[in-house]
Amino acid sequence: MTAEPTSPQQPIRILFVGGHGRSGSTLVSRALGAAGKASCVGELRYLWKQGVAKNQLCGCNRRFARCAFWQDVGDAAFGGWRNVDAIEMAGLHQSVMRIRHLAHHLLPGSTGAFGRRVRLYAETMAKVYRGIAEVSGSPMIVDSSKFPTSALLLRRMPGIDLRIVQLVRGPHGVVHSWSRTVQRADKGGRLMATHSPTRAAAEWLVFNAAIESFRLTRTPWTLLRYEDFVARPHSELSRVLEFAGSPSPDTGFLGDGTIDLPVDHSVAGNPMRIRTGVVPLRADEEWRTAMRRARRRMVTVFTAPGMLRYGYPLR
Ligand SMILES: [Zn+2]
């Protein structure tokens, strides 16, 4: 794969999809990538563990080590992935990038061992982003890492033009999705992680509040509700891509209630990242019939401040 090299001075534009898991970020990111002619790399925070170390499937349905795109990125960034210790990088990620580390990232200067680890991780990831920009030749990278710690890491990197789109989905659908047992087509039928309803509801609030706090910074931020994307995909994609500096999107892949997905090289994310072709575009409302009344009420009471904030009716 060849492309025009990006000049070292040119900032790399990154559209970061932030928010809570099970909010539809894989589908939305792929749609943003396709419409904006951007490179959709999926949840890049899992690159080291799932891609380089475990050689799992890329979105293109090839093993990471057999995907020409990612091999070219490794060559561009490091002269080959073999020149970086992937296990060490995955461990470094685990030690500084989890949601429990959020407060540490906000401390000014972050000195000491934590600060040194964050700087090393940021320097290494900056090379990865530059490699992606070089190899793809795309005007923008869509990163659906979602975690606020990943967005804060991007803010540390020089030469990055970061834009954040906060993706919110109503909490009942999110909590229900976290409780379902789903086999992963992209990982040989292994089960997707599940969370208890209280944990999923609490994290919905925390992740969304943390991503929304970027409104208080100079980083451009916009909101996208998953339900609005499903109802009005053309206008919502156009709005977000204009915000991201890519006006006049090509939304020819949108049909009447469908979306025609191209091949992406997303390194991690929802199992639907390996699906291509025409798929239905609909809000998953299974929770309305499958969720018990008491649990629905618990979710509403727990997440009411966020529901009101993002325009979800409490009844
Ligand atoms: Zn690939």
Automatic annotation (TrEMBL):
InterPro entries per UniProt: Gal/GlcNAc/GalNAc_ST, P-loop_NTPase
GO MF, one annotated term: N-acetylglucosamine 6-O-sulfotransferase activity
Keyword Transferase listed: yes
GO BP, sorted A to Z: N-acetylglucosamine metabolic process; sulfur compound metabolic process
Annotated keywords: Transferase
Record bears the keyword Transferase: yes
Name of the protein this chain belongs to: Sulfotransferase family protein
Organism (species): Nonomuraea maritima
